Amino acid sequence: MAFEAAVGEVDITPEFPPYPSLWMGGYGWGPRGNHGAVARRLRAQCLVIWDDGVPKVLMRADLISVPRDVHQTIRGTLADEELVAFDDFLLVASHTHSGPLYGDIRPSPYVMMDLTDADVDAVNGTTFLITDALIQLVRDTLDQERTGVTLSYAEGEAGIGQNRVSDGGAVLDTVPVLRVDTTDGDLFAVMFGAACHPVSRGRDDVFDGEFPAVAAEFVENELGVPALFFQGACGDQEAKDPHVPATTELLGTLLGQEVVNLLDSGDFAEVTGPVQVAMTEVDLPFQVDTSDPDVLDMLRDKYQARQNALNDPKDANWRHAGVMLKLIADGELPTAMAMPIQRWRFGGLSILALAHEPLSAYHVNLREAFAGNLWVMGYANECEGYVADNDTLRSGGHLHGGYEAGWNEGDDTIAGFGCYTISYAWPSPLKFSQSATPAAGSTERIVMDAAQGLLNS
User: Fold this and answer.
1) For residue 31, which of 110, 102, 144, 88 has the smallest C-alpha distance?
2) Where are the domains of the chain?
3) According to the lineage, what is the superkingdom (predicted)?
């Protein structure tokens, strides 16, 4: 039996009014807001695939990230309304750095941008409107007329990025493409991906879906069907320099042309049902045990010393230290970072969707360990920090200033100056081992074991 499908789309570009906030996400460490300039409209797209009458929902959105509380609200609402089974929904953010700040937990608007309480209230107002639009998009797409379709998969290559963490690190050029054809043989829609930080236009105040939007529009203009971009494991993958608007056009066109070329002449493999969806969640512990009273005392002393030494509320590291001290005083310091991992298994293709900002090593290692076509997505469902491999984690400040590792200055017990652990408001880097092979209980081992468990079950 063929699949059935429908595609929907909604514009989520904030405008004032009704959106109360035009604050932008993607860059620290001071305020950055839009003033009405839009290079390309931001959009969310939804592809529903009915498998034997059961809807499986894939959604992508031009957002920097989706916080955990917002993800849970969207997924829970759809499940409560019995529109889609809890595990049968997948949401991926494009990670555009030229979109709105979305949510108020991670990253922290106060720590990252020194926003006031009134500003944060406005951010939440915009978040509520976008969230409502995403949920309504699913409802509307499910109500559309269904079209009988077939699926097929192929991979191309496009060199649009570089590894910003390590000169010798992996550079991900893979372009996965899932074509959706009507049962009459006409192209109906295209899913495609890449793994690269959408920072190609640089830090300005213009809303833009970035190079993924350029690529999607290129495909749509060339082929006349919806094109949906899904981000990959690009935690260490940076758009090529220089970061100016012209680079956005260049890289997006290069990616879009590769998708079109592949659709014109590529060797696509049949993708069949049934679709078997599974989801798990692991807790990624910190390098120090924040449930231990002695550790809390140590962290309290270190963060108080940091605040005293900096003595500057305009410094994000000072603001972060204050947040940590309050969490410790209130008994609310987190003990781990939750990480959802989702698997969609078709005949001929498996999709593995990793939450947060996974580094390229997970793409490389998982594809090496898996026999068959595997599409690794990042920024899936929720994003609240970087998930580095063990080598990057143990390197600390020796690679890219420790930004992705979460620590530097020779101290792996505390969030490093200017690291992601500051903006994402975590107390400590994720757990790693000093051994070349990641030890049990370390971040890489936990993620790989859970991901392979899903892929092999």
Assistant:
1) 110
2) 3-272, 291-329
3) Bacteria
CA-wise closest residue to 379 among 359, 355, 363: 355
Per DSSP, the chain holds a count of helices (H) and strands (E) of: 11, 16
Instruction: For residues 120 and 98, give the distance between their C-alpha atoms in angstroms, rounded to a whole number.
Output: 18
Instruction: Reduce the DSSP state of residue 152 to 3 states and report it.
Output: strand
Residue 167 and residue 246 in contact, taking contact as beta carbons nearer than 8 Å: no
Question: For residues 275 and 49, is the Cβ–Cβ distance under 8 A?
Answer: yes
For the entire predicted model, the pTM comes to 0.97
Q: Tell me if 411 sits within 8 A of 288, measured CB to CB.
A: no
d(CA 237, CA 248): 15
Quick: pLDDT tens for 238-256.
Answer: 999 999 999 999 999 999 9
Question: Cα separation of 149 and 2, whole Å?
Answer: 6
Coil, helix or strand at residue 155 = strand
pLDDT digits (tens, 9 = 90+) for 15-26: 999 999 999 999
Give the residue among 68, 109, 15 at the shortest CA–CA distance from 339. Answer: 68
Phi, psi of 293 (to 5 degrees): -55, -35
Residue (of 98, 96, 102) closest to 198 by Cα position: 96
- pLDDT given at position 3: 97
Closest by CA position to 26, among listed 99, 126, 131, 109: 99
Q: Return the ∠ at Cα 260 (arms to 254 and 263), rounded to 5°.
A: 140
How big is the CA angle at 289 (ends 287 and 290), to the nearest 5 degrees?
A: 110
